Each structure stands twice: as C-alpha cells, then as structure tokens.
From TrEMBL:
Keywords annotated in UniProt: Metal-binding, Zinc, Zinc-finger
Biased composition (Basic and acidic residues): 169-181
Organism: Vombatus ursinus
Keyword Zinc recorded: yes
Biased composition (Pro residues): 698-711
Name of the protein in its database record: Zinc finger MYND-type containing 15
Residue ranges, compositional bias (Low complexity): 553-565
Length: 732
C-alpha cells in the first residue's frame, strides 16, 4: 500500500520527525554528532537571519535532560553511522516499519544499570502554580549540581515522555520493542550512551528543536564529548530552532527564553541577546505546567516521494486531486510516471480526487466537538488532556500516557490480559472528571439504532460525550448484525438467532479495549454472544484464554474459563442467562485456527495489503464461506483490499459504504490530506463460486427461449409435376 496512515504506530511517526530534524540540524551545523565549532562567518549569518524573524509572544524553554540508565544497542541490520542517526534509514525509508517491534533487529534500548541505585538528578520540578515561572534568586538544582530532594512530577518528565527516554512514554515504547531494553540480552558491541538531551519547546508544549549529546560507549563519563562546549551547542540549537522550528508554524524568535540549568544560564547571558531574545533574569528553579499543557500531537508533514519534512522543504498538494503532498515538480513527475502504471499517480489521481470529495460526509457527525476532532489540524493529546481523559482505556489512545503494566510481565506485546480485564468496563471508560457512562436504561432498545444520535439518546448520553471514540468497535459489530447481515444475507435470518459465534480476525487495537464489547450484551440482551479474537499479533501468553463477562449486581465481573484468574467479586454464572459475553483468544493467524465454523467474521481496519498472512487467511474464509465484514479507515484502503482479495481468492468485495458508527477522531496523515477515521467504511467479502458445485452465478437475465417452429405444410402438387423420388427423400 502506498499510504499507511492509521496503520502505523504514531510513536514511529514522531521518532521519524525527531530523526529527520536532527539529521538536518547536524548536517547544517557541519560538526556531526561529536561536536565542534562551526565557522564564525556562518554563525554571524545565522544570527542576522534570526534577528529579522518575527517575534513569538509565547515563552520558550530550554530543557536539559540527563540520561544515566538507557543505552542504544545496534543490531546487525542497523545502518552504521553516528549515534543519533541510528535507525533513521528504517524510519524514513520507502518501506517504513508499522510497529515498534519491527525495529528490534536494527536498534534496541538496553539498561546501563550495573547493580547501582539509579539517582534521578533532574534539574526541573513542579513547584510552580498556575503555570507561573518562579524567577527566584535561589540556586536551581541541576544535573551539574545534583539535588537530594525528592523528585516531583513536572515538565521534564513530560519532555522525556516525548523523547522516549526514562518516562512513561519510554515505558510505552519498552512494552512494544521487547525485553532487550531492560535487563535482557544485549548485542556484542558495547551500547552507546545518550548522555544528555537538549530540548527546546514553547510554553504550550510544541517541540521546536532537539540535540542529542552522546557520551560514547557504556562507562564513558561526561555530559558531552567533543571540543564544543555545552553552551555553544545550546546556542546553536536555539538558532536552528528559531530558523527552522520542528513542530509547527513559520520561523520565529521568542520574546523571552528561560533555561533550567544555572551554569548554562550564566553562559548564555552574553549569547542570547545577540538574537534579540530576552533571557530570564534568573534560571528557573521550578516550572509548573499550565493546566492545559500537553505536548502537541501535531507532526510536521512530509513529501510522499522523498519523505523530506515541511521544516526542510515547502510542501504543496497535487494541483488536481489535492490529496498527495509533494516538495516540488521533481517528485510530482517521479510519482506521476511510476511503473507499473497502476501504481502511478496518473492512475490514482482521479480516484483520490473522488475520495477527497467524501471528507464532508465523513465529518458529518452530531457531536458538539465535531468541528475540533474532524479538523485536519486536530490535536488529539490536547483534547484528551483538556477533558481529563488520562486513565483507563483512554491511555490506549495517547502516545504520552503510560498504559497498564504488570510487574514481571514480559514486554513487547501490550498489556497482559489480566490487566485488560481488571475493573468494571464502565469504570475503564471513565476519566478524571464526573462519570461518563450513565446507568443502564430500564428498557431494552426498541429497534436497531442506525446512528450515533439515536444510540446516545437511548443511552442517556449528551452529545458532548467523547465515548464514541471507544464504543466505535462494539457499535460497529451491532450495526453489522442488525443492519448489514439482514440486507446482504437475508437467508441467514440472523436477527432471530438466540446465539451468535463471532470471530474478530487479525485483532489489534480493539483487543486492548476488550471490555468495551460488553456493550453488545446490553444492546442485544436476547442473544448469547461468543467473541473469539484471532490474530498473529496477539500476545502469545494469552493464547487459548477463555473467560466470561457477566452482570454482577450493578457492575460486571469476569469468570475465568481457562487460563484467566478470577476477578475479585466474580460469582457463579446464572444458568440460562443470556446477558453473559463469552470471550476467547487465539494468538495465531486465522488460517491456522481450528474449531467450529462461526456465524459471522469481522475485522477492524484490516489492511489486507500490509500483512502477508491475509494471503492465507482470505482463502481460508473462502473455504468457510461465512459472512465476513471488514472496516477500513479510508476508501483508498477499501480499493486495495479488493485487489488483494481478487489476487488471493479470485473473489471480490462489496462496494464500501460509510459506517455510521465510525470513530469521530480524524487520523493525521503525514504525506497526504485524505480523510482517515478508524472504522470509516464497511464492506463484505464476495466469494468466488466453488468449482464443480453446480452453482453458477447469474451474470444477467436469461436469454429468451425461441418460439417453436411450426412445420410447413407442403403445397399441393400441380398437374404435370414430377413426384419426388424415394431415393432423394431417403438422401434428405
């Protein structure tokens, strides 16, 4: 697939942004990674350019983040080169990885701890109130002057989350990439030590520049290597951050800058005024983030062909379809003339223009926050933080918030099943504010819902509730059962069945939200449901797990089937109850699954062209010939799925239709402007008729049956005419 928006881990997009900006910064600095003084003429030219930039009213902050415990280990497949550029070729190449586990053969993170207690000497804390900067005369605690004070949560931890260092963001990455980062196996070569990270942000959390100071292999001391001092490195970083801001916006210079290191503050007192920037009188001792502070999830766009970011070149969309971003005519013509012809932009341009025309239809949602979340510049992290959606299942939507972790649980495959099942499902939907989910309605639904507005009205939810982002998965299953299967497969009479066995194939993000599927038992109280999650990407330790969700008073409890520990307070299953939800897990590709035939198969945001296992799973579905429905995040993905289905089985797919229960959050794409939403479109598989079965498709109306011909009566023989001979008659 040409476009992987919505299928790629957003942390990888963020890492590619960091590597791309740092690579440009290091090359323009002319000193590589190790440091060194640039030419004096280039420095004066840069200063003159920065002084002419328009002022930014926002306060800028220079953070100094030391690192003592995490090192970078290179795999045999990694591109050798300067330390901070490790893995950049894989992140920025033509075939970028889709998840963090794909990077493990090339680069991994290892622990540098050798039995010593780790001391956190962060120079910044959170003593400030209401986002104010305390400019006190007291000496600040810094990495150069370690403090014995207890660590308090503050902005540096947020910054480390974004940078992937020792923070909750790093923990989220550790869970994905495998056990090498902790006290696991290491490569033969000594791991490189990232001694310090310089980070420039504004007061709103937008990252503007980054510099990585390598300390060499494990055991080498010092905060930075090379002849260039820390102050000169920081000054050069500030100049590049103003001339070429990483996050967003045009080049600009701040009116005021604050620094978190006293010694670095003193060294910058004579340098920063050259740029026309006012340096705070004293170094910040503490910095309290404002109530709405969060690192912006806005990421710089990139050219679809050469992958250069918007801070390197000026990007423009295709003049005809407006869907694909390019950096110039060279890349436009390179994409237009690709071979074979069906992968060129010449072939796709009119189709992409039609896809762009559906943007307004996909954004037509009834919520009060629709304009914000369907905007092309939607900031998801700010939306979640401003509404207090920072715990429970909401952490699965954020790149910054740490998800649940079990002690001693092997990382690499997401949260363990025991944690995914901990707690009432409605408690997992809650944020930090008032309850989001009202009590269950006293009466069951009178008819099938066909829109979010109807469902919200019956459930007692206000249209300002963001729960549609999580409930898109169970409501999509409900819509398939109550609307699409009766329309496409009326002979199954699925609405009158008392039990349904449903396979969720190649399960991914929906498995991490597994408890939200309890809502199906509320919407379909007359049906005994069994959901079986199947997929090779599921955690192997959860294979063959089986459990039951059942109502326990006013809440929901978990009763184990096999391999799942009982949830506290779970009771015995009521005999004959249909409000139970059976859930099974099979951590294997679908074509390797053994068991009874399901009533229905469904897959979420499947991406047939991105996984080779679909080339075996689709023929398996062809042999089962069960109704199989799939969602995709864009019409482009639906077209690619149809091509994969035709190549794998000779069958096809039904025309995709918009899903009324799609997620309201618009997915941000880096190299295109197409509208992407989770579960945006639905289609079902159209199977090829089996050979030798006697079943032939009806390609069109039957040909007309010719009318029977009436034999002609021979005319009466006239007098004098010869009677035909017998031989001639016999010959005839």
């Amino acid at each position: 697939m040409e476009f992987v928006s919505g299928y790629r881990d957003e942390f990888l997009d963020f890492a590619a942004l960091l590597f791309g900006w740092f690579r440009k910064f290091a090359s323009e600095r002319g000193t590589g990674v190790g440091g060194g003084n640039g030419s004096e003429g280039r420095s004066r030219l840069m200063e003159a350019q920065v002084r002419r930039l328009p002022p930014d009213p926002a306060l800028w902050v220079l953070h100094i983040l030391p690192n003592r415990s995490v090192g970078i280990s290179l795999g045999q497949g990694a591109k050798q080169g300067p330390g901070p550029g490790l893995g950049a070729a894989r992140l920025l190449g033509d075939e970028p990885p889709l998840c963090l586990r794909d990077l493990s053969p090339y680069v991994s993170f290892v622990s540098l701890e050798d039995g010593e207690e780790e001391e956190d000497g962060e120079e910044e804390g959170t003593g400030g109130e209401e986002g104010e900067l305390e400019e006190e005369g007291e000496q600040a605690t810094t990495s150069r002057e370690p403090s014995q004070d207890a660590e308090t949560p503050g902005e540096p931890e947020d910054a480390e989350e974004e940078a992937g260092e020792d923070s909750s963001g790093g923990d989220k990455m550790e869970k994905e990439m495998g056990p090498e980062k902790r006290r696991g196996k290491r490569s033969d070569a000594a791991p490189l030590h990232l001694a310090c990270l310089l980070l420039v942000t504004d007061e709103h959390g937008t990252i503007l520049g980054i510099d990585l100071l390598m300390g060499g292999p494990q055991g080498s001391g010092g905060r930075a290597t090379g002849a260039e001092g820390l102050a000169q490195r920081a000054y050069t970083l500030l100049c590049h951050s103003m001339a070429c801001p990483m996050g967003a916006g045009d080049p600009r210079r701040p009116r005021q800058l604050t620094v978190g290191d006293p010694q670095l503050h003193r060294e910058l007192e004579n340098l920063v005024p050259k740029l026309g920037v006012k340096l705070a009188k004293t170094p910040m001792r503490t910095w309290g983030p404002r109530p709405g502070f969060t690192f912006a999830s806005l990421r710089a766009r990139a050219c679809h062909v050469c992958h250069r970011h918007s801070f390197e070149v000026k990007l423009m969309p295709c003049s005809q379809c407006g869907a694909v971003l390019y950096c110039g005519e060279t890349c436009v013509w390179a994409d237009w003339r690709r071979r074979p012809d069906d992968v060129s932009h010449r072939f796709w341009c009119p189709r992409l223009a039609a896809f762009m025309g559906r943007a307004g239809e996909l954004a037509a949602l009834p919520f009060t926050y629709t304009a914000e979340v369907t905007s092309e510049m939607f900031n998801k992290e700010a939306f979640l933080a401003s509404r207090g959606l920072t715990r429970g299942y909401w952490t699965q939507l954020s790149m910054l918030l740490p998800g649940p972790v079990a002690p001693g649980c092997p990382p690499g495959n997401g949260p363990p099943l025991s944690l995914l099942l901990s707690g009432d499902p409605y408690q997992l939907l809650q944020g930090d504010g008032p309850p989001l989910m009202p009590p269950l309605p006293p009466d069951p639904p009178r008819g099938p819902f066909g829109s979010w507005q109807d469902y919200y009205a019956w459930r007692g939810l206000g249209l300002d509730s963001p729960l549609a982002v999580l409930l898109t998965y169970p409501l999509t299953v409900y819509y398939v059962i109550t609307h699409l299967v009766p329309q496409s497969f009326p002979e199954l009479n699925i609405q009158n069945k008392q039990s349904l066995k449903i396979h969720v194939v190649e399960a991914g993000k929906e498995f991490d939200l597994i408890m939200v599927f309890w809502e199906l038992s509320v919407l379909l109280p007359h049906v005994a449901l069994e959901l079986q999650f199947v997929g090779g990407a599921l955690p192997p330790e959860n294979d063959q797990q089986h459990f039951t969700l059942q109502r326990d008073g006013s809440g929901v409890s978990v009763r184990p089937g096999s391999g799942v520990s009982a949830h506290p307070g779970s009771g015995a299953k009521e005999k004959g109850s249909r409000r139970d939800l059976q859930i099974k897990v099979s951590a294997r590709p679908y074509h390797l699954l053994q068991g009874p035939k399901p009533d229905l198969v469904i897959g979420f945001n499947s991406g047939f062209g991105l996984k080779d296992t679909w080339l075996s799973s689709l023929p398996r579905l062809q042999s089962l010939r069960v109704p199989a429905f799939f969602t995709e995040s864009s019409e482009y993905s639906c077209v690619m799925d149809e091509q994969t289905m035709a190549g794998a089985t000779g069958g096809g797919t039904s025309p995709p239709q918009p899903n009324p229960f799609r997620s309201p959050f618009r997915l941000r794409a880096s190299d295109n402007c197409m509208p992407w939403y989770y579960n945006a479109f639905i289609f079902h598989l159209v199977y090829k008729p089996p050979q030798g079965s006697g079943i032939r498709p009806a390609p069109g109306p039957a040909p007309p049956v010719p009318a029977p011909t009436v034999p002609l009566v021979p005319a009466r023989r006239r007098r004098g005419e010869k009677r035909p001979s017998r031989g001639g008659r016999r010959r005839r």
